[in-house]
Amino acid sequence: MRIKMQTGIISKAFGVMMVLLLLSVNLAAAAPAQSERHSYLVGLKPGASSKALEAAGIQFASKWDNLDAVNIIATDAAIQGLARNPKVSYIEEDRPVYKSSIGSSYTDGAFTWGLQAVHAEQAWNVKATGQDIKVCVLDTGIDYGHPEFTRNGQSIIKASKNFVADGHPDATDGDGHGTHVAGTIAGQTSDSGSRIGAAPGVDLYVARVLGDDGSGTTSSVLNGLNWCQENKANIANLSLGSDRPSQTERKAFDLAYKNGMLSIAASGNDGSGKIGYPANYSSVVAVGAVDSSLNLAGFSNYGKGQELVAPGVGTLSSVPRGTGLHGITKENENGVETSYRSYGIEYAGLGSAAGPMVECGLADSASSCSGKPASGAWIALIDRGSITFGEKIQNVTAQGASAAIIVNNDAASPDDPGNFTLGSAGSWIPSVSVSYDSGIAIRSGGLGAGSVDLSAWDYSYFEGTSMATPHVSAVAALAWSANPGVTNDQIRTILHTTAQDLGPAGQDNQFGYGLVQADAAVQMARGGF
To answer: If you classify domain 34-94 with CATH, what class do you get?
Structure first.
């Protein structure tokens, strides 16, 4: 699946690619191209031993006897030789995989809208919290010290391991994605202002299979999946994927399902009718994302393999401590103060500002803010569109703005503040985004005085099928904890049967069987399914 990433990530990845390209050109001048080594997955014919692959130019990285497959690092010349080896059934690239979130820095109150939508509290009220269920999170790792992962003074992280060859001594999360996913499943506190974890009774197992840039390889996922099985995990959460299948990966997930584990994966964020992998394998539950209006999110993939949907827009959860952004936006009009939910824009400066709100339209010029005061602090109100967010903030900063509010133009999701980035770190003013509906409300009676406050936080709002997937994993854990004697196949059927039907009656390509419902799933499991 082609993952829609933030501009900063794309720029970083492009820079790395250019460095590698220049390096390869220099190496090509110094040595034959066939000496370059790449990672491959090789399938063995039944009864064949990996020893049959031993040859010059081949280095073994991983061996999976249960899959009749190996991961090798080999030269092009060695691969050409393997293609003629009668013991080899196939050779495939160790393809890249990526996290399935769009990322960002709305819900205030006792529970996030996601927990409310899946009826998590109702399941807890009948003593189903996910207790004694093991959930393995294959992702970018975790912030071990985050308070969301401590229960009764003890860590709920029962084991962890790093499968990315980047020098990390453990599964510490350098990206934030894995910590967010894990918090959505098992968060323990209300320190964010809302409860975030749908299955607070589970035990977490953390396999770091994606690096600090949110990407990994098929081999890292397979090694993580095997480790999850060794630890007897009931559920594997995979908020990641690729737009291409892998024979080796398919065999691994088929075997994991046969052995009793339930794998749940993100459908992808291309907004296309093609579900990514591993979600698209028949042995894996494919999860799409809905917004708070229970519409399929614009970014969510869909298709014949769509199985379930869950909340994936404006998802509040934990991130490595101090890396989130907490935005507060207020307007004071005629003595009445109104608060609007807002997201911090990536790379925006921390701080606060108060003063009159000034209309700046698209902020596409250095004279776009009409009626700005001659002196003192003021806040630019900006519409999304036309130019980049970074250019907009530069233009209003040049006109003297102390802070900025960008209004999302997505009328299809009118309560979504959006997911914006300034592109890179810099000397930016505090900048937040608000929803389409909030923009209308702010402007409805004429602009009054306002305030913007942006501070570091241990939480953040993300969106993506990555965020929907842990909601489904958590509901599966709740149902399983209600009846530990059921099988993974039975839990899967329970999720289908008890889902809230959305869209056309019955299973469909957009919503699958529908929105997972924890209380109904627990009731069905407990009824002796």
So the answer is: alpha beta
The per-residue pLDDT for 192 is 86
pLDDT at 20 over 70: no
- Range(s) within the chain of domains with CATH label 3.40.50.200: 108-319+463-526
pLDDT of the residue at 35: 63
Q: In 10 A of CB 154, how many CB atoms?
A: 9
Calculate mean pLDDT across residues 6-26: 31
Q: What is the 3-state secondary structure (H, E, C) of 428-485?
A: CCCEEEECHHHHHHHHCCCCCEEEEEEEEECEEEECCHHHHHHHHHHHHHHHHHHCCC
Question: Quick one: 494 exposed, middle or buried, by C-beta within 10 A (0-12, 13-18, 19+)?
Answer: buried
3-state SS, one letter per residue, for 492-528: HHHHHHHCECCCCCCCECCCECCECCHHHHHHHHHCC
The mean-pLDDT minimum among 15-29, 221-235, 474-488 falls in: 15-29
Is beta strand 308-311 parallel, antiparallel or unpaired with respect to 351-359? unpaired
The predicted structure's pLDDT at residue 28: 35
CATH fold of the domain at 108-319+463-526: Rossmann fold (3.40.50)
Please give the structure tokens belonging to residue 485: 């004697």
Per the CB < 8 A criterion, the answer to whether 219 and 61 are in contact is yes
The 10s digit of each residue's pLDDT in 269-311 is: 999 999 999 999 999 999 999 998 899 999 999 999 999 999 9
CATH of 324-457, one of 3.40.50.360, 3.40.50.720, 3.50.30.30, 3.40.50.2300: 3.50.30.30
Label residue 99 by pLDDT band (50, 70, 90). confident
Q: Sort residue 434 into left (φ over 0), alpha (ψ -120 to 50) or beta.
A: beta
Q: Which amino acid type is present at position 394?
A: Q
What totals of helices (H) and strands (E) does the chain contain, helices first? 12, 25
How many Å separate Cα 199 from the centre of its chain?
18
Res 410: pLDDT: 85
Listed in sequence order, the residues at least 6 apart from 122 whose beta carbon sits closer than 8 Å to its beta carbon are: 518, 519
d(CA 126, CA 302): 33
- Does 177 or 36 have the greater pLDDT score? 177
Q: Which pLDDT value is given to residue 333?
A: 78
Neighbouring residues of 20: CB distance < 8 A, sequence distance ≥ 6? none
Is cis: bond before 278, omega within 30 of 0? yes
**Encoded tokens for 130:** 């996910």
Residues 247-277 pLDDT 10s: 999 999 999 999 999 999 999 999 999 999 9
* Closest of 366, 368, 476, 462 to residue 118, by C-alpha: 476
Q: What average pLDDT does the segment 518-528 reach?
A: 94
Tell me whether residue 308 is exposed, middle or buried, using C-beta atoms within 10 angstroms of its C-beta: 0 to 12, 13 to 18, 19 or more.
Answer: buried
Strands 37-44 and 431-434: unpaired
Three-state secondary-structure class, residue 134: strand
